[in-house]
Design goal:
Elements (H helix, E strand, L loop, with lengths): L3 H17 L5 H8 L5 H13 L3 E2 L8 E2 L1 H10 L7 H13 L4 H16 L3 E4 L8 E8 L4 E8 L4 E7 L6 H15 L12 H6 L2 H16 L7 E4 L4 H4 L3 H11 L2 H8 L5 E5 L11 E7 L6 E7 L5 H19 L2
Antiparallel strand pairs: 1-2, 3-7, 3-10, 4-5, 5-6, 8-9, 9-10
Helix pairs in contact: 1-2, 2-3, 5-13, 6-13, 7-9
Length: 330
């Protein structure tokens, strides 16, 4: 824990650098911090902070810039700021007025969070495990290949392809769909699905074989990955000045497995900065928070440079997460 004066100097330096993107001089810190000490005293404290790894000096005559360690200290010891009333109202109005099924709601939420923070945002859907099955649809792609669609009670769709050992007619496929639908509707995804014994006895061997194959697909729906919705990627060129940095961040955002790995954290609010992320040589920080969707949790997050306004972003992520959770549970 830094002593009080150094903490205030570090806070002022981080916040000034977030605002300007320029190295911060000791004179600026003396003027802004209100500590009532000279610029020379500030310089001595900055030298100590530099020795401890909190600040760096790009050039001999330049001011200082915060390191990843400085951002981490700043996040850990200074609470989030209060959102402006207009921003709070915008978030509240969105969730009060939106009437969308879960998939569309999560997509819209990613756009809202990106709009509020002016940074790329990510919303990870909760797992479908535990949601009840509302409907089953089967579609012929070829005589041997069918598309299976498992629709949950929240309107989420898990699709898969099934190749049958022999062709099946449209009439037979309708019979398969009816049999599996009767068996699966109302069952929680992840639970065992069984055909009614009387129904089973009435099916031809080919229809029964296809029905059992479809049931295996339905039961495997529990292993489908969580959907990821990304908003605001068009803003990246305005956030990262270096286009090569934009490309590196975009590569991370476009890799769903990487995003899921980054956001797969313990419940609550998480802030990962620089080398704390499972990526290398990328100027990036991620603020995220879980939301309770009733069965399994999801997560909302914001991706930005290390020089992001953490206090405001944390507040926005927590507010959107809270409102999304309330909306889902209505």
């Amino acid at each position: 824990m830094l002593e009080e004066r150094r903490q205030e100097i570090l806070r002022t330096l981080v916040e000034e650098y977030i605002k300007t993107g320029e190295p911060v001089s000791s004179r600026t810190i003396a003027e802004v911090s209100g500590l009532g000490v000279s610029a020379a005293t500030i310089r001595n404290e900055l030298a100590a902070l530099e020795t401890d790894g909190y600040v760096a000096q790009p050039h001999t005559s330049a001011g200082r810039v915060p390191t990843a360690r400085a951002y981490r200290y700043y996040v850990d010891h200074l609470g989030p700021s209060r959102l402006r009333s207009a921003t709070q109202a915008k978030i509240a109005t969105f969730f009060d007025s939106v009437q969308l099924e879960l998939t569309k709601l999560l997509k819209a939420t990613s756009r809202l969070l990106a709009d509020v923070t002016q940074l790329p945002s990510v919303v990870v859907a909760p797992s479908v495990v535990g949601e009840r099955i509302r409907d089953i649809h089967l579609v012929h792609l070829t005589p041997e290949v069918i598309l299976t669609m498992v629709i949950s009670e929240n309107g989420r769709v898990v699709q898969d392809r099934l190749r049958l050992e022999s062709p099946i007619s449209s009439d037979e496929l309708e019979e398969v769909e009816e049999a599996v639908t009767d068996a699966a509707v109302g069952v929680s995804i992840g639970s065992k699905v069984e055909l009614d014994p009387q129904r089973r006895d009435s099916l031809t061997s080919r229809v029964l074989e296809a029905s059992e194959a479809v049931i295996r697909i339905v039961e495997d729906a529990a292993s489908s990955g969580s959907d990821v919705y990304v908003g605001g990627t068009q803003q990246m060129a305005n956030v990262w000045e270096d286009l090569s940095e934009v490309q590196r961040v975009l590569e991370v955002v476009e890799r769903e497995a990487m995003i899921l790995n980054i956001l797969a954290r313990a419940p609550g609010t998480s802030v990962l900065i620089g080398t704390e992320l499972p990526v290398t040589d990328v100027d990036m920080a991620v603020v995220s928070k879980t939301y309770d969707a009733g069965t399994t949790p999801g997560r909302v997050g914001v991706i930005g440079p290390m020089r992001m306004n953490y206090r405001r972003v944390i507040s926005a992520v927590e507010e959107v997460s809270r409102e999304l959770e309330d909306r889902i549970q209505q």
